[in-house]
Specification:
241 residues, alpha+beta, four-stranded antiparallel β-sheet, 8 helices
Length: 241
């Protein structure tokens, strides 16, 4: 993997999360509840919960908040009724958009996502209409400013831990894994004390679309802003360059 860097986008995303921690913490709280229901409250025996805890820490969620969320979920399993849903469609300019949601009300979420697309001049499509343009991968970002390891040493460590690929960008190192290997590789980085700017299973576009028209960009921004403001929306992926 080469030719693009997500680190700048990661920093922008963190800044947005810092300005709207309530939304970020709500989403992560739901993920904690689902992870506990599926695999139990002990992160040592629950890889999915470990991943969510790592995500929570990256979003600056306090440890006591994380622990309270785990305990609450463990004691209230009968009321954890969230489901995962994915919506796919096109924004203006032919931009592919994938929206991943975690919700307790499918009708509400579907209506809100459809409304966001419509208000920005986009359209919801059928399942699979754009996901074939993306590859699901584990992606770990290490900022150069956060590590003393040189590229060769970090690459060897990543590959030995089970990573698929490694690339050096201007301000970061990017490590990709198969989705099923992500938890193992992330755990190896964590145990080694390597600080990660981001670690998540994500959708990486196979090709990118360049948007130069200001009106198209304005409408795209409207879609993305509406989706970002929705508590049911976990992640949004696009192939915008």
């Amino acid at each position: 993997m080469s030719g693009h860097s997500k680190f700048a986008n990661i920093r922008v995303k963190k800044e947005k999360n810092d300005a709207a921690k309530g939304k970020a913490f709500t989403v992560i709280g739901r993920e904690i509840a689902v992870a506990v229901k599926e695999g139990g409250p002990n992160p040592d025996n629950n890889a999915k919960l470990r991943d969510v805890i790592a995500k929570a820490k990256a979003a600056n969620m306090p440890n006591d908040t994380i622990e309270r969320g785990i305990k609450k979920a463990a004691g209230d399993l009968e009321n954890v009724n969230y489901s995962y849903n994915t919506y796919e469609g096109y924004g203006p300019g032919g931009v592919a958009i994938i929206v991943k949601c975690l919700t307790d009300n499918n009708n509400r979420t579907a209506g809100n996502v459809r409304s966001a697309f419509t208000k920005g001049g986009g359209s919801i499509g059928v399942t699979g209409c754009v996901s074939y343009m993306f590859d699901e991968k584990g992606l770990i970002i290490v900022a150069k400013e956060d590590t003393e390891m040189d590229a060769d040493d970090l690459m060897m460590f990543a590959i030995e831990a089970g990573a698929e690929d490694f690339s050096e960008e201007e301000d970061s190192f990017e490590i990709t894994t198969a989705p099923n290997d992500f938890s193992t590789v992330r755990d190896a980085f964590d145990k080694e004390g390597i600080k990660m700017a981001s670690a998540e299973v994500t959708m990486i576009p196979q090709n990118y679309v360049s948007v130069t028209d200001e009106d198209v960009q304005k409408n795209l921004d409207r879609i993305l802003d509406l989706l970002d403001a929705d508590d049911d929306v976990q992640d949004v992926y696009t192939n915008i360059e």
